[in-house]
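Q: Could you write out the predicted structure for this multi-component system? I'm mainly interested in how the pieces pack against one another.
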Amino acid sequence: MKTSNYLKENNAKRLWHPMAHPAESLASPPDIIVEGEGVEIVDVDGHRLLDAVGGLWNVNLGYSCEPVKKAIAAQLDRLPYYSIFRGTTNDNVIELSEMLAEFFAPDGLSRAFFTSGGSDSVEIALRLARQYHKIRGEAGRVKFLSLKKGYHGTHTLGASVNGNSNFRTQYEPLMPGCFHTPAPYTYRNPFNESDPERLAQLCLAAVEDEIKFQDPSTIAAFIMEPVLGAGGVIPPHKSFMPGLRAICSKYGILLIADEVITAFGRTGSWTGSRHWGVQPDLLCSAKAITNGYFPFGAVMVSDAVAEVFEKDTSGKGAIGSGYTYSGHPVGAAAAIACLKETERLQVATNAASRGDELFAGLQALMTKHGAIGDVRGGEGLMCALELVSDRGSKAPIDKKSIGKVHRVTYEAGVMVRVSGNNIILSPPLIITATDVAKILSALDAGLAAL
Ligand code: PMP
């Protein structure tokens, strides 16, 4: 490995970081992570940190998941690549599809289309939704609806349904025909409603209103995250997703669950949809499907949607979408091993218990630190602290101050993620109660530095 000085000096000279201003990366160089073990990471200066970010919501099983590493190495030896485009396939994707069908059976999803990551999965799901309606003779159903504050990746369709202007404005014009409705975000919402259940009803009424305004026969799908993640961890009230399911069914609109973060145990249930008792028509997955060790994803399709494609005799059911790395045999080998470990370790159960402890601990921190305006979580291991400079006006805390919280928490041995005025926590799902206590005490120190 190159020296620490070389790495620090050269990082931003040639490398542009996703979601960062190039000038900012030069002025304040990022932390260079060089090792990972268990739930910890080590930076280039030998500083050991508990990774409360879990990579990027994906390293659910930590950094030492031997079965996944071994499966990747063994597959590289046996068959490092072959495509599954029409005419060929590989043994791993066949086995994986069977395992995924079993895993997602309670969600009513039984067919898999493989991708190289979350943005790809979103893109495919949106394309399949339009195609589904075309096959059925409803070619006018081309529009998409989604929630403000939702995050659906970087590709153009995904960015078009994205509900955060930061990820949109520099790239406009995006796809026409994409419309957004208010998020069930209790802390800030256009209705000034602080009761989550009443807010859910208001947001659902806004969805129905938008559908009628657009004309239901023009809408292909509604896409939502069961718990909004990158937008600042916004868990909707339990009535929201079932209500949305009912509205979509009423108007013949497909419901796409974007579970790039929530699938495989993050919410304390095996999937976010199951968490809310909802069966989506399509489900996007990626991230934890390989524990972050290999870029991979899968779009799961319901029986009813699948049948429309499979029984089509017009030719419209031919899937004109695919990635060179769709069904990559190494990714599939990693996913098979990962699914087995995910189930063997019953990580969803641990995520639920540790998530409750973390959420309770964060609520306790709120009584101590005036900068915490809102604490969100309570649905497994995804939580956020929204920091404000004044609780009364809810004015977001400034960048420098939240940077300070991050730095002091880091010095105390815990990596957290800053997104806008939120501190986001999405640790590996294998963390222990001691790890939770460590996250809380480091954050306590970080907040005390304000
Ligand atoms: N959808 C959701 C809900 C996500 O959280 C993300 C990534 N954070 C994506 C899509 C995009 O996934 P990727 O970064 O793997 O392309």
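A: Regarding packing and overall arrangement: The two ends are 36 Å apart (CA to CA).
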